[in-house]
Amino acid sequence: MATVKLTKREHEIYELILTGKSNQKIADELYISINTVKTHVAKILVKKSASNRIQLITNQNK
Q1: Residue pair 2/11 in contact by the 8 Å Cβ criterion
Q2: pTM to 2 decimal places
Q3: Can you tell me the distance from the alpha carbon of 11 to that of 5, in angstroms, rounded to the nearest whole number?
Q4: How far is Cα 56 from Cα 50, in angstroms, rounded to an integer?
Q5: Residue 42 vs residues 18, 25, 27, 55: alpha-carbon distances, Å
Q6: Is-contact 10 44, C-beta < 8 A?
Q7: For the segment 5-50, what is each residue's pLDDT rounded down to a tens digit?
């Protein structure tokens, strides 16, 4: 199976998701809007073939 390519920003957000941060906390930390975070999270979920954050965290090696 090929590894999934995340953009630099997606990778930053992915790492923050893995630490348990909420969308609002991520937005505050990265100085971006919550809507931008939500867009990135949605793209990450698709790229990682996950349907939610829990699945994303438990399958983080994909």
Answers
A1: no
A2: 0.89
A3: 9
A4: 5
A5: 15, 16, 14, 13
A6: yes
A7: 999 999 999 999 999 999 999 999 999 999 999 999 999 999 999 9
d(CA 29, CA 49): 26
Structural domains of the chain sorted by starting position, each given as residue range(s) with its CATH number in brackets: 8-58 (1.10.10.10)
Q: Which helix (H) or strand (E) holds 4?
A: none
Chain centroid offset of residue 32 CA = 14
Q: For position 2, what pLDDT does the model report?
A: 56
- Sign of the alpha-carbon dihedral angle for 42, 54, 30, 34: positive
Binning pLDDT at 50, 70 and 90, where does residue 4 land? confident
Q: What angle do CA 45, 51, 57 make, to 5 degrees?
A: 70
